[in-house]
Amino acid sequence: MSTVPQQAADARVASIDLANATRAEKDRALLLMAARLEEREADIVAANEVDVRNARGASLSEAMIDRLTLTPARIRAMADGLRELAALADPVGDVVRGSTLANGLELRQVRVPFGVVGMVYEGRPNVTADAAGICLKSGNAVLLRGSGSALSSNAAIVSVLRQAVADADLPANAIQLLDATTRDSVKELMRARGLVDVLIPRGGASLIKAVVEESTVPVIETGVGNCHVYVDEAADLEKALAVAMNSKTQRLSTCNTAESLLVHAEIADRFLPLILPELADAGVTVHGDARVAAYDESVVPATDEDWDTEYLSADLAVAVVDSLDDALDHIRRHGTGHTEAIISESVTATRRFAARVDAAAVMINASTRFTDGGEFGFGAEIGISTQKLHARGPMGLPELTSTKYIVTGNGHTR
Amino acid sequence: MSTVPQQAADARVASIDLANATRAEKDRALLLMAARLEEREADIVAANEVDVRNARGASLSEAMIDRLTLTPARIRAMADGLRELAALADPVGDVVRGSTLANGLELRQVRVPFGVVGMVYEGRPNVTADAAGICLKSGNAVLLRGSGSALSSNAAIVSVLRQAVADADLPANAIQLLDATTRDSVKELMRARGLVDVLIPRGGASLIKAVVEESTVPVIETGVGNCHVYVDEAADLEKALAVAMNSKTQRLSTCNTAESLLVHAEIADRFLPLILPELADAGVTVHGDARVAAYDESVVPATDEDWDTEYLSADLAVAVVDSLDDALDHIRRHGTGHTEAIISESVTATRRFAARVDAAAVMINASTRFTDGGEFGFGAEIGISTQKLHARGPMGLPELTSTKYIVTGNGHTR
C-alpha cells in the first residue's frame, strides 16, 4: 500500500507552519541543512556508492553513471547552493499590489507560498537538495519523487535534510521523499488534488507529457526545448557565427541548446560556407534541406522529423528560408515555445521577430544558452517553464508563490 | 462532425494578429462592437425571444427565465460594458521586470496575451459580450461555449460582434461561438491542448469539477465559494452584525456570499441573540449546531453536510467555536479557498487569521461581498479564481496575459 496520500496530508500540515515561518527561521534551517550535508559527507558518499554499484550492474551508460555519482566536491556544491539560497530575498510577504479603495477599504495583494509542491525528476541526486532548498526558502512543503536509480542517495540526503529542518525548529515533514521503486507513487501524486497545490515535472519529454495529460493537480510544464537560431539577411556575420556556434555547442544536452538553424536565402551564400566547416570541426552533424546540402557534401539530408527533434546531441537541423516571415512560420510549426534567437542588425526585423515569436524567451543577437535562472540573475532556478499559465521561462523563488488579497475595513458593507 | 478543432485552429491564426494589434486598434473595435449591439437591438431581442419561448416550453424556473431574458436596457448595459473596457489601460506590452545584466545583456519581461482562451459558461447571454470584450482588450482570441438555453441569443450577439471586429480591421475569428447543442464541444475544447492556451469554466460546481478533472488544456478554476464569517471574541458587535448580515443577505446567489457563520463561544451569549432574530426577519433559515440551537427554537439542526454546502439561497450554517484556532480549523476543513472574513478589534487575532487562512481573499471587518473585480477597482472581471496557480481572486485584464522574456545582446555568448 502506498503512503503518498498520507505523506501529502502530512506535508499539508507542515506547510501551514512553514508558510508562516520568518525569513530568519528559514535561512537558519538552510544553513543548518548545508552544514549537515558536509558533516555527513561520508555517509552520503557511501549511500551513493550503492546506487552507482547497482547502476553498473544494470549496465547504465558511463554518462548516466557520471550524473549519478556524488563526490565530496559535489556534496560541497550542494551545500553551497543552500547557502546561496539563504542569501536571497524572501518572496513571501511581498506586497504585489496595494491601494485604498474609494470607500476606504485597504486592499493588499500579498505573496504567499503555494503550500505543497510535488516534484518529479530524473537523474542527478543534487536536484534533491536544490529542490528541497528552493521550496523551503519559498515557504513550501515539498514531496520529492526522484529517480529509481538514485534511491539510496536520495534517501540519505533527505534524511540529513529533514533532521536539519527539525533541529532548526521547522517541521521535518516539509521535506519528504516518495517511493521511487514504483510508478504508482507518481500516479498518486498526480491525483492528490486538494492536498498538493502544484506539480513540477523535470525530465524527458515523455515524463512531462504523461504528467501534463494525467494530472488533476495543476502542473507547471518544464523544459522541452526545440530552440532555433534565425540568421537574418541583415545579420552581422561574425556575431551570427559566434552566437550560432555557442547556442549549439557550448553544452549539448540542455533544453536551451539550439537544435535548428534557419538562414535567410539572401545571406546563405556568405554564411553557410563560414559555419558549415566550423560545425564539422566541432563534430556536429548537420541535417540540412536541399539548399543547405548544396554547400557541403557532409550534410545529411534532413527528414520531416528532424525539424521537430530535440536532439540533445551533436546534431543540428539547418534550413534556408526565403524571408523573416518564413522563419516565423517554421518556428510556429516546429518550436516548443522555449527560446528562439534572431541575429540581425535591423531594428525592424528584430522588432517583428520579438513581437511575433510565441516563446518564453526571445534572444536578439545573443545565444539561446542564456535562458537560465542563474544567467538572468534570479539566484536560484527550479526549472524553465514552457507554458503560459503562471510562470513562463526560468522559474526562481517568486514563481513558487501564489498571492492572497487581504482587505481591511471598519465594518464595511455593500 | 464537430468543428471545434477547426475553430480552434482559426482562433490561433487570428490570435497572432490580435496579439500585435495596438491599444488604439482594439479600442476602436470595442467601441464599434458597442455601437453595433445597440443598432441591432431589435434583432437581438427577437433572437432572445426564441430562447425565452423554448425555456418556457421546457418549464424552466422564472428565475432562470429572468436571467436569460434580454431587454433593450440589458443590451445597452452590455454595450456600456464594452465602452468601459475601451477606457481601461491595455496590459499588453507592460514591462513587468527589466534589468541590464552584468554582461551587458538587456533583459525585459513583457506582458503578452495568452493567445487563445476557451470560456465555458452557463446562463446569462450578457456574459457572451463581456467575455468577448475582455478577451479582445487583452489581445486574446476567444472560443465561447455558452449555455444551450441561450443558443439563439448568443448566435445573434456573436454575429454582431464578429462583424464589428471585421469592420474595425481586426480578425473576426478572434471571437467564435462553439456548438452549444452538444457536450462534445466541451470535451473537444478540453482536449485542444496546443491550440487553446487556457480554459476558464464559469458556472456550477459540477461543470468546474468536470473541466478541472478532464481538461488537458490548462484551467483556471473559478467561483465555488463556501465563504465564512468568523465573529471573534474581540469583535465589535455592531460591526459584526452589519458585516455578517450583509455577507449573507446582500445578494444570495453569488460566490462571495457567506454560507457559514462561526461565533466565538465567549461572545455567543451577546451576539447570537442579536443576529438570530435579524436573520429570521430577513427570511434566512439558520442551520445551527447544538450550542446555536439553544438560543432560538427556529434553528434547524445542522448536519455534517451543511458545513460543506454552498447554499446560494436564504440558508446559513452557524456554529459556535471555542477559539480562533478552532475557527481556522473549521475553515481549513470546509472552506473552498474563496473568501473568509474575521470580525475583530484585536490586531493579534486579525493578523493570525489573515496569515493562516488559505484563501484568495481575507476580509478584516468587511463583508465577503467585496471580493469582486469591480469592487477591487479592476474595471473588468472575467471570473474569480479559487486556484493558486497563475491568478487568485478576481481576474481582470492583466490576469488574462502571460509574459515573454526579450533579451537583447550584441553577439553575446556563454
From TrEMBL, chains A, B:
Protein encoded by which gene: proA
Family membership noted in the UniProt record: Belongs to the gamma-glutamyl phosphate reductase family.
Species the sequence originates in: Paractinoplanes deccanensis
Chief location: cytoplasm
Broad enzyme group: oxidoreductase
Protein's recorded name: Gamma-glutamyl phosphate reductase
Pathway this chain belongs to: Amino-acid biosynthesis; L-proline biosynthesis; L-glutamate 5-semialdehyde from L-glutamate: step 2/2
Listed NCBIfam families: PRK00197.1 (NF001221), proA (TIGR00407)
Subcellular location: Cytoplasm
